[in-house]
Amino acid sequence: MTNHLSARSVLVTGATGFIGSHLTAALLREGAVVHAVTRAANPPSVPGALFHRYDGTTASLFGAVKAAGPEVCFHLASLFRASHNTDEIDPLIDANIRFGTQLLEALTLASPTPPRELVFVNAGTAWQHRGGSAYAPVSLYAATKQAFEDILEHYASSGLKRTTLKLFDTYGPSDRRGKLVSVLLDHVGRTGPLPMSGGEQLIDLLHADDVVAAFVRAAEIASSGSMQPAYSLSAGRSVTIRELVQIVEKISGHPLNVAWGARPYRQFEMFEPWDAGERLPGWEPLVSLEEGIARLFRARA
Amino acid sequence: MTNHLSARSVLVTGATGFIGSHLTAALLREGAVVHAVTRAANPPSVPGALFHRYDGTTASLFGAVKAAGPEVCFHLASLFRASHNTDEIDPLIDANIRFGTQLLEALTLASPTPPRELVFVNAGTAWQHRGGSAYAPVSLYAATKQAFEDILEHYASSGLKRTTLKLFDTYGPSDRRGKLVSVLLDHVGRTGPLPMSGGEQLIDLLHADDVVAAFVRAAEIASSGSMQPAYSLSAGRSVTIRELVQIVEKISGHPLNVAWGARPYRQFEMFEPWDAGERLPGWEPLVSLEEGIARLFRARA
Q1: What is the percent of chain B with per-residue pLDDT over 70, rounded to a whole number?
Q2: Most buried one in A46, A173, A293, B219, CB count within 10 A?
Q3: What is the DSSP letter of A129?
């Protein structure tokens, strides 16, 4: 990893989340001064990060930005829902559109005009691009992420250096999201059946270390001013769920009792590998799926 | 105009606005049952329309939709700002994204699943397409309109028949928006100078009658299921502001005292004629600019 962020002020949203906490730790190791915003009165501890309080208003973010004086903002906060119920309309819009818009307003307001030295790296999702299309959302969640990208373009037109990294699926240490890799590793050594879908859908899994490196690299590219509006982050290889299970079985040395077909496929399960969007220059994934899963298995042993 | 909406239940948002009030009157003349939603306790009167109260929640819209049972929804409500200040972030998101999302949720929730018989005609703006591009917003307002179109695509994927009409500029009777045509007609006979920009930018002006016909036609096309996601509504002819002034002078028989260059151009004034997007099949503007302005002038005499 380059150290272009050393001694620089960086603002991270979603710093207590999965990728956010890995990114924050990496930035601190690089010597960056890491600021974070949170709605929580008592945020989970992220050692070394300086927390600022967000009370739902742009004014509170302006205060945070004024105090932090960030040169780079990594925007990873979001509310994920694979599908939504009616009560979640407002939370999804608040978390995935309103908060980010208020943040962009605060950042540009606190910056010299035009904000040409300010870098903003946004986290998007491959679920905005069903079937690899320019835009076809899998869920309302994905639609709100696309909506925020559109808002971001408004701020880009006033000089903000922005880019969005489209993530597919991620895994790594300290993953408390209950996602597939963790579920499979948790099941090693258990005898009861693990109910799964048919398992033929493809997934594109990126290790947290590679995701973090991509965010740092994206900030570097944006800082030079030569960024694209978005890049896709792909592991460069897709596996079916069934192949993933085989990898876990091989590494753990235990057969997994999976009840294939016990759960339905989701309405818009991605069966095709995802290959839309520009590749991030100067970055490639370094942690193979076998290596990443082996590391997780060893850490549990 | 066709009368395919006769005796059908139609929901109009923004019914008290400029285009909304013209559309509502036309729908009532066609024999449609027109429902409207409003936040106001005492909405401006639109004779014949049935008003339902929106209190900021999806639940209130669900109640309105359950009562109205609309087959077609025309979504014209929006908050316009040529540029915004920081206090307007939340109102712009609430009016242009949240309200429409809640409405879509209420409509699909109240409909049979999937909502294949439900038609949704949305009002967009040419200001989403600076320089005729696929997307380049002129303002945060335009970005919020684009963001809502993204949300709309999510609901389209569950079967909603939707389309968006991209409006450039509009004029006609009962226009209380203080826009250019009204300002020029108000100035006829006055002697003081009217401060204007350089006047070389092009505008594409559509008469309210033609806009209303386009919305009705769009509902018809969507109803057949053969709609595109969006259509551009162009007058088919652009004039410079200077040419528009000459038209008003010719029709009124009075020279206008215009102080050209007394005001700056806006940051993203559109100088190019706008020619992006699909044309609405089976519709063309019928009211020429000269005819429309002559009608307005005669109505004032």
Answers
A1: 95
A2: B219
A3: B
Task: Output phi, psi for A159, to 5 deg.
Answer: 115, -10
Is A58's CB within 8 Å of B90's CB? yes
Residue the block writes with tokens 């699926």? A169
Burial class (CB in 10 A: 0-12, 13-18, 19+), A1: middle
Is the per-residue pLDDT at A127 higher than 60?
yes
Q: What is the mean pLDDT of residues A221-227?
A: 95
Q: In angstroms, rounded to a whole number, what is the distance separating the alpha carbons of residues A122 and A104? A: 11
Select the residue of A58, A86, A98 nearest B58 (Cβ to Cβ).
A86
| Interchain CB distance below 8 Å, B97 and A102 | no
Residue of A89, A125, A139, A158 for testing the chain B interface, max B β-carbons within 10 Å = A89
Residue B35, SS3? Answer: strand
Contact (CB, 8 A) for A164 and A149: yes
Beta-carbon pairs below 8 A across chains A and B: 84
pLDDT tens-digit series, residues A51-88: 999 999 999 999 999 999 999 999 999 999 989 999 99
How many Å lie between the alpha carbon of A246 and the closest alpha carbon of chain B? 34
A143 in Cβ contact with B136 (< 8 Å): no
CB-count burial class (<10 Å; 0-12, 13-18, 19+) for B297: middle
Q: Which 3-state string (H, E, C) describes B45-91?
A: CCCCCEEEECCCCHHHHHHHHHHHCCCEEEECCCCCCCCCCHHHHHH
CB A128 within 8 A of CB A166: yes
Q: What's the rounded Cα separation, in Å, for the pair A16 and A46?
A: 7
State phi, psi for B124 to the nearest 5 degrees.
Answer: -110, -170
Residues near B9 by Cβ (< 8 Å), separated by ≥ 6? B32, B33, B35, B68, B69, B70, B71, B72
Predicted ipTM of the assembly: 0.93
The structure tokens listed for A297 are: 């298995």
Contact: B98, A86; criterion CB under 8 Å: no
Cα–Cα distance, A82 to B114 (Å, whole number):
19
> Quick check: A136 and B153 CB within 8 A?
yes
Angle CA A189–A192–A193, to nearest 5: 110
Six token digits for residue B276: 């992006």
The DSSP string of B213-272 is HHHHHHHHHHHHT---SEEEE--S--EEHHHHHHHHHHHHT----EETTSSPPPTT---S
pLDDT band at A273 (very low <50, low <70, confident <90, very high): low
pLDDT score at B39: 86
DSSP B126: G
List, in order, residues 6 or more apart from B300 with CB less than 8 Å away.
Answer: B185
Query: Residue A96 has what DSSP assignment?
Result: I
> Is pLDDT at A107 greater than 60 in this prediction?
yes
Backbone angles phi, psi at B15, to 5 degrees: -65, -20
Q: What are phi and psi of A274, to 5 degrees?
A: -95, 120
A90:B109 CB<8 A: no
Cβ of A182: how many Cβ atoms within 10 Å? Answer: 15
